[in-house]
């Protein structure tokens, strides 16, 4: 069929009605987005041009073939109708549609130009990618999208490039050109209308709008959050479908696996919920999903509250147990034994008793007074004088005897009291000795306790050293296994290291390498990978033919082949090299070939053919963690 007239993008300075084109902001499946100036109001706007294009160069394009022209016209009319509907949406987090018009056999939507940075650039700051910041960013986006869903529309092209973060930190959802738009191209160009990784499988079905709904946009929002928490593009839903429908495993690794070191389990679980492959397994409304996504995770443990006044209920006499058993130790820190206190009291009593007057001297004084009184009474000088004298003598002798007995009794009592005092002194000395021994025993116990604690600390330090050595061995082993591509063995070593110290920064780095390697191992060698490696093989061939030693060493890993070819290049002016038998191995993600020396040319033009032992060698390159290794030979 005859094609329509060639089409080109608008250039700077061209006019669309009263809009002057400034530059191209971007291209998409439906056409081109321009930055333009509204010359009437003198402010910048964004204009989206609807056109299904087949690119032929960087700037120029051609229209679809004439047999699709009628369907293209229908797409234009639907584009205009939906743009008119979008004008009704008034929300601060949805780009505002200002106008729509037809010109140049197509349609244009005029939208408010928003300044800021797209989500990918915004997430390069680690603070913007933590859980709290992501929730705060996606709440207004979900509210704006809910407004669209409420009017019966879906966005259908949510991806990081269509989420702009303004300079004040608020997000805005861009590019509603795909909203409910029907495909106007054949199945071979259908992928131009979806964003791989962010579009669910129902968007790949041409004209199957009935299968699409809010759950379609929820899948895309979940994919954007997946990118935010993992830093990786989600696997295309078409590839997921191919694997799942053929009985294989889902190639999309769960967010709960990749983000568990940084995000809560509930947050990651709800991201995975939005990315369920089957429509029925996903949240059906934004409100259901956002309620679950924003819910606070239940803490694993509950902190027990302690009354601060409990610290002040200890009695002063109770032993609190100092941290250092020898700190402040003295004799006065211990109460005196009762025996010592009793001995001190008795000794004080004895000393006071020496100062008391003897009661017997009082009796003697009374007797003398009675005799003096009797000598003055009349009648004592009568006839009975002889008898009275005899009685007086007997009484005097009795008094002397009584005086002697009293003196002996007093001396005996004094001796007994002195003996008791001496006994008390002995007991006091014994009690003081026992108190000293008790204090010494307490000191010995304190020293022993200090030694015991020092021994426990030494044991703890020894265990820590052993744990650190074991951790270093596990991390070294995991790194070596990752270099060798043995992912299962590397994961086992990483799990062992996690049990030793899950917060070690080296462990986090190796765990991230393992995840990248796991993704890489599940991704087959692509045509782009093949072309890239073959180009390096050919570059090596040209370097060997042209005696370019620097390029050869830059492309290859050090080996004895480097020395061999240096020697050949010093002897011959030219080597004829062929690259043959190219093979691709998805098992170990490697590409190999045979490098053959056909001829070796000397300065004088003579040709030499190498021996079979040196004529051919295998060259190979292997993809490790997403990067192709230097050429091995």
Automatic annotation (TrEMBL):
Enzyme class: transferase
Segments of this protein annotated with the region Disordered: 315-337
Statement: the UniProt record of this protein carries the keyword Metal-binding: no
MF GO annotations: ATP binding; protein serine/threonine kinase activity
Coiled coil region boundaries: 398-441
Superkingdom, taxonomy of origin: Bacteria
EC number(s) recorded for this UniProt protein: 2.7.11.1
InterPro entries xrefs: Kinase-like_dom_sf (IPR011009), Prot_kinase_dom (IPR000719), Protein_kinase_ATP_BS (IPR017441), Ser/Thr_kinase_AS (IPR008271)
SMART domains, per the entry: S_TKc
Keywords carried by this UniProt record: ATP-binding, Coiled coil, Kinase, Nucleotide-binding, Transferase
Binding site for ATP: 48
Record carries keyword Coiled coil: yes
Span of domain Protein kinase: 19-294
PANTHER family hit by this protein: MITOGEN-ACTIVATED PROTEIN KINASE KINASE KINASE 20-RELATED (PTHR43289), SERINE_THREONINE-PROTEIN KINASE NEKL-3 (PTHR43289:SF6)
Protein name as catalogued: Serine/threonine-protein kinase PK-1
Source taxonomy: Bacteria, Pseudomonadati, Pseudomonadota, Gammaproteobacteria, Chromatiales
């Amino acid at each position: 069929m005859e094609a329509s007239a060639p089409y080109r993008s608008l250039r700077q300075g061209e006019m669309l009605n009263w809009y002057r084109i400034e530059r191209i902001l971007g291209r998409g499946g439906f056409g081109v987005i321009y930055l333009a100036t509204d010359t009437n109001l003198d402010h910048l706007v964004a204009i989206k041009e609807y056109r299904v294009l087949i690119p032929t160069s960087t700037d120029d394009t051609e229209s679809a073939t004439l047999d699709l022209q009628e369907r293209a016209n229908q797409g234009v009319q639907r584009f205009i109708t939906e743009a008119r509907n979008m004008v009704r949406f008034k929300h601060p987090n949805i780009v505002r549609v200002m106008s729509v018009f037809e010109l140049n056999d197509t349609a244009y939507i005029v939208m408010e130009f928003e300044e800021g940075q797209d989500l990918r650039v915004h997430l390069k700051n680690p603070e913007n990618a933590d859980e709290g910041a992501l929730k705060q960013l996606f709440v207004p986006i979900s509210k704006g999208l809910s407004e669209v869903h409420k009017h019966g529309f879906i966005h259908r092209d949510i991806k990081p490039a269509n989420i702009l973060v303004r300079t004040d930190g608020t997000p805005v959802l861009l590019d509603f050109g795909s909203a409910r738009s029907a495909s106007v191209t054949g199945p071979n160009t259908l992928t131009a209308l979806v964003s791989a990784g962010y579009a669910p499988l129902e968007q790949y079905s041409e004209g199957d709008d009935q299968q699409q709904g809010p759950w379609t946009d929820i899948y895309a929002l979940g994919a954007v959050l997946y990118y935010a928490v993992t830093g990786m593009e989600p696997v295309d839903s078409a590839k997921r479908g191919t694997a799942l429908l053929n009985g294989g495993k889902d190639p999309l690794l769960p967010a709960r696996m990749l983000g568990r070191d940084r995000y809560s389990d509930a947050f990651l679980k709800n991201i995975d919920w939005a990315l369920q492959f089957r429509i029925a397994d996903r949240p059906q409304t934004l409100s259901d999903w956002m309620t679950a996504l924003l819910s606070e995770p239940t803490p694993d443990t509950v902190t027990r509250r302690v009354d601060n006044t409990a610290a002040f209920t200890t009695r002063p006499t109770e032993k609190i147990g100092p941290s250092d058993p020898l700190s402040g130790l003295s004799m006065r820190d211990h109460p005196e034994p009762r025996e010592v206190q009793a001995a001190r009291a008795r000794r004080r009593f004895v000393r006071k008793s020496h100062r008391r007057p003897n009661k017997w001297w009082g009796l003697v004084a009374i007797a003398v007074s009675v005799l003096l009184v009797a000598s003055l009474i009349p009648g004592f000088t009568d006839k009975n004088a002889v008898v009275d004298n005899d009685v007086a003598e007997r009484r005097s002798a009795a008094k002397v005897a009584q005086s002697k007995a009293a003196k002996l009794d007093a001396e005996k009592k004094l001796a007994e009291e002195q003996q008791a005092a001496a006994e008390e002194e002995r007991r006091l000395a014994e009690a003081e000795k026992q108190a000293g021994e008790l204090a010494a025993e307490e000191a010995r116990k304190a020293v022993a306790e200090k030694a015991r604690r020092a021994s426990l600390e030494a044991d703890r330090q020894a265990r820590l050293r052993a744990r650190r050595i074991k951790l270093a061995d596990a991390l070294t082993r995991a790194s070596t296994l990752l270099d060798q591509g043995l992912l299962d063995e590397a994961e086992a070593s990483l799990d062992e290291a996690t049990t030793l110290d899950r917060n070690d920064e080296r462990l986090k780095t190796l765990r991230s390498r393992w995840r990248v390697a796991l993704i890489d191992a599940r991704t087959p060698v692509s045509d782009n990978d093949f072309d890239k490696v073959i180009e390096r093989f050919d570059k090596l061939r040209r370097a060997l033919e042209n005696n370019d030693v620097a390029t050869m060493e830059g492309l290859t890993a050090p080996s004895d082949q480097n020395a061999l070819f240096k020697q050949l290049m010093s002897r011959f002016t030219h080597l004829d090299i062929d690259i043959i038998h190219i093979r691709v191995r998805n098992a170990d993600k490697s590409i190999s070939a045979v490098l053959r020396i056909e001829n070796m040319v000397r300065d004088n033009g003579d040709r030499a053919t190498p021996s079979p032992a040196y004529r051919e060698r295998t060259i190979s390159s292997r993809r490790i963690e997403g990067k192709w290794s230097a050429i091995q030979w």
